[in-house]
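In the previous chapter we treated chains in isolation. Here, by contrast, the input contains two separate entities that must be folded as one system, with a combined length of 687 residues.
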Amino acid sequence: MKKLDLVDLHTQLLNWTYSLYLNKFRSHALIANLGYFGSPDPTLEIQKGTGTKEVTPDFIATDKKEIVQILDIKGFDGMIEWSNDDDITLKIEEEFQKISEYKNITSASTKSYFSKHGIHLDSNTLELIVVMEFGLYSRYFDAINKAAKKHGVIVWSIDITQKRLRKHAGHHLDKKLDSIFDPDVVLSIYPWFQPLVLFTRQTNMHLKIFYFTSNLISALVQDSKSTIRFEEIDKIMIDSDPPKFAHLIPEDRSREWKALLYEAIKHAKILKPSDIGPDIYELENAAILENPYSQHKLLDDLAKELRIVK
Amino acid sequence: MLIAPSKLIESEDQSFKGQCYYYTLLSSRNLQPSQVLTEICSKLFQDLKKVRFQEEGDVSIAIMENKYYFIIQKIDSTLNLLIYYNLTSESIKQLLENTIVKIKWLSFGWMSPQELDHFEGYSDDFDVINLYTSFNPYYLQKKFAKIQPELQSRYQERWYKPRAIEVNIRIPKIDAHEFLKRYFPKKITETVKLKFKAKFSNPGEASIVVDQDAKVIHERGELKATDKIVSDVIQKTQSRISEYLKYSTSREYTKLDDGSFDLSDYSPSRPFYYSFKLPDGDMDEFSVKLENLLTVSRKNIPMYGIRLSRKGRDFSCLSYLPVDRSELQISYIEDSGTPRLIVDPLKTTPLGILMLTRTLSERMTWSTEFCGFYEEA
């Protein structure tokens, strides 16, 4: 099965994590069955001086009573190239330092986030979890365990080949949650490699541009339309499967579409602003609607340009 | 619910005598019949003022200058039955068919050769039937043409063009298969049938044609006799669609007050696969032809895509079907010598699977079998 070729590591790890928190009463949704609820890409606030600053961790979850979990997925990009052990220790320490900033997330922002999802929390105890790929953990476990202990962060690892979730450092406030890790958690909601979410804030930009553009193209081809209004894009992306960025609020989605549309205009050269009016875009090459071969050519060129295929 | 098509026509015109066309139309948009009809008519006629629209529940009627009638009956969320007939000799049938092809979210239904064979049962052994069968010359050239090796590459590209050798005979049903058996090599008649049309004189007194587009033509005779054939075609299409339903994706979202969505339920589509029976062993060409079909788009093929990787004969590609905006990741493997195509949909609907199955069956010369869920080894 080669589905994951088109899903990057960060998005994969997030999907495996999400699967544990989704669909209560299903045997594989272990954490959801303990009463937890989770959601990707929250926007929260931390206390900074007298004001607040926006932060965007990868995942947020709650037991619906008092525990709020903040999960962050760490790939430690580029670490493999470093040979110096001191550098690695330093880098790991730095990343954990960044995560420990989430301890200052205001309870007002988490409460208001969950209340939108119909969950009203009485109190608010934060728990920080770092999720990483098992291969990476087993390579640098000394430094990771040390940093985790220092900053009071729990470490989970996901073994993609063996489909296992393991806990390595720290203890959960919830004893029942702690006990599911003995023995390892077997992951299985993702059995046919179908992503629950395809677009996250941290998803590889090239993949996002590719999916975004190919979805736009297929919508335009289906409608035999060579122009598109900016406000139509949101509907097209929400109608696709899985809905792109459906978990974000419309303003955030709109910002993402703008960035991706910019790429589609500037770099992929698929669309251009139309003369008809503002916020209307038209195909660079309207022939794709008439000449089926150009649909293939356009996507093929784009995929090569983005290095999705060789 | 299907209202007997003959009733619809009789209520319009008591003295109807003439040809009548029944099209099963599959739509990826769940629209009211009047919306589908307006879409077709606006593309068909420049001036919609001449068209008179009428509507009754699930049935919508368009009358053009009291000469042509279009009746659309909504059968379910995907399936519509379009009835066309005209009272003058002037026919816009071809125009209508071309228009429907241009509307990308709409497609004709499909009767597989096996399903078409079923309709032969309606005619008696001694009824004269029309047999229309076409063969794919790709196979014939490959098999029988003696092309020198140095010229092979020049002919190569011609083989990929869809062309057909057609046999059209009028013959008593009892002799039909004997005739094919006698005059054509067994290999051809058993393996390369692309199209099949048959004409019936039963049930009742009517002459009816069914073709691979799931189109029924009532040529003459009692309209009521045709009803049975039409409802059979619809039933077969519906059962195919409901079979494919379990392979399509389904995710349920709850819209929150702030405009974001919560994923509330999720059942991913599971991969399904096709397997192919090749009479001879030229797997290399087969794999190349298959890849071209799934990626390089051509006129009349409702899909396009890109190749992701290829290693020997095995390849994987990403294909899109405009009809329902399906996104499919497809891999070709060989399992102890049998070619298999594993389809892993990111997004699909029964309509997309139907189009893919149809394209594979009609374009890939050898017998294609839809095999259902693919379990990972």
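Chain B touches chain A through 46 residues (CB under 8 Å). The CA atoms of residues 28 and 351 of chain B lie 7 Å apart. Compare these points with the single-chain example from earlier in the chapter.
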